[in-house]
Amino acid sequence: MGRLKHAGPFFYEMLKIGMRKVDVPEGHVLPRAEAVRSLGEHAAEPGDFLTWLGHAAFLIRIGGLNVLTDPYLTSYAGPAGLGPRRFVKCGIPMSALPRIDLLVVSHNHYDHLDERALARLPDKAHMTVVVPLRLASFFHERGFPNVVELDWHESHKVKGVTVTALPVVHWSRRSGFDTNRTLWAGFALRSKDHNLFFGGDSGYGPVFKELGAQYGPFDTALLGIGAYEPRVMMKASHANPEEAVQMGLDLRARRLVGMHWGTVLLTVEPPFEPPERFLKAGAEQGIAPNDLWIMAIGETRPLKGWPSNE
Questions:
Q1: How far apart (Å, rounded) are the C-alpha atoms in residues 150 and 166?
Q2: DSSP symbols for 124-153
Q3: Are 161 and 189 in contact (CB under 8 A)?
Q4: What is the pLDDT of residue 39?
Q5: CB-CB contact of 73 with 53 (8 Å)
Q6: Residues contacting residue 71 through CB under 8 Å, at least 6 positions apart
Q7: Where do the DSSP E strands lie in the chain?
Q8: CA–CA separation, 210 vs 67, rounded Å?
Q9: Which sign does the torsion angle of CA 62, 66, 68, 74 carry?
Q10: Beta-carbon count within 10 A of 186 CB
């Protein structure tokens, strides 16, 4: 009831915010040519790397596989040109992405499951798609033949990389009539050299200590740090930056990467507040600056080997 009481004012405020121009700080988005060139240089060399495309969309090379996560890559987080509009473009044009071996989707919200982007992805028959329970049919109907559904704690191996679906604090809905009819998840991606946690969308909860004990330590954790205000509505769905840092500590992750911010206005906090709070909270917890990553959209960084937490 507390959340419902705040829903009207929240959506009215979001309507006003949606018409507002966002002033994007210099350096938040790499120039396209620079981003494409850097990705190409990393792709031409051996070794794992991470490219932030914006929001929760990453290109990850791990164990020799090109992995694409939650590819919200087009303009609107909604159906038929409706919904919140990105205020920055995807960091790398889809035409410049390498061939995708593994597509991982955490849940069916429009800012994570972008039907228009899926339609434009080439080589659908080549890639393996890993999704939570009851989402496979969505992909089969859109031309993806190799789809694996996972329940929480189930795993699937793709050429030396083990993908495990993990419980997180969130929910699902694609329309007004299908709330929680499909599962949501975070994922562990583990190769012989690296253990990476992709958080999808999540609020904070004790489950992260359980995951850290069972599946950690992690080399790298990709954690949502945005879309957290007002807390009475968002606490059960999205962590704030301080909670994201605690998630990383609970997961026993050495490197924390902030995501789910700086791309599209979903909530009412200032759009460039999350990284400042994230870096401050991490420093207060004693995490080294080099292990707190705030990336530019389009930026590519190399990842190091596993195990590095010992």
A1: 9
A2: TTTSEEEEETT-HHHHHTTT---EEEE-TT
A3: yes
A4: 98
A5: yes
A6: 53, 57, 103, 105, 114, 117, 118, 121
A7: 49-54, 57-62, 65-69, 102-104, 128-132, 147-150, 155-158, 161-166, 186-190, 195-198, 218-224, 253-259, 292-293, 300-302
A8: 26
A9: positive
A10: 31
Instruction: Please tell me the predicted confidence (pLDDT) of residue 6.
Output: 43
> With contact defined as beta carbons under 8 Å apart, do 204 and 247 qualify?
yes
Answer yes or no: are the C-beta atoms of 55 and 105 closer than 8 Å.
Answer: no
Indicate the length of the chain as a whole number. 310
Write out the two tokens for 188: 């562990």
* Distance between CA atoms of residues 100 and 1, nearest Å: 43
CB 188 within 8 A of CB 156: no
d(CA 46, CA 144): 28
Where residue 11 falls among pLDDT bands split at 50, 70, 90? very low
CB contact at 8 A, 114 and 90: no
Answer yes or no: is pLDDT of 13 > 80.
no
Mean pLDDT of the 266-279 span: 97
pLDDT at 161 over 50: yes
**Residues 6+ away with beta carbon under 8 Å from 190:** 161, 162, 164, 196, 306
Contact (Cβ atoms closer than 8 angstroms) between residue 219 and residue 308: yes
Q: What's the confidence (pLDDT) of residue 307?
A: 47
**Which residue, 264, 221, 262, 265, is CA-closest to 243?**
221
d(CA 251, CA 257) in angstroms, rounded, equals: 13
Q: Which residue has the tokens 């890559």?
A: 73
DSSP code for 290: G
> How far is residue 91's CA from residue 29's CA, in Å, rounded to a whole number?
7
Distances (CA, A) of 10 to 67, 219, 232: 35, 37, 11
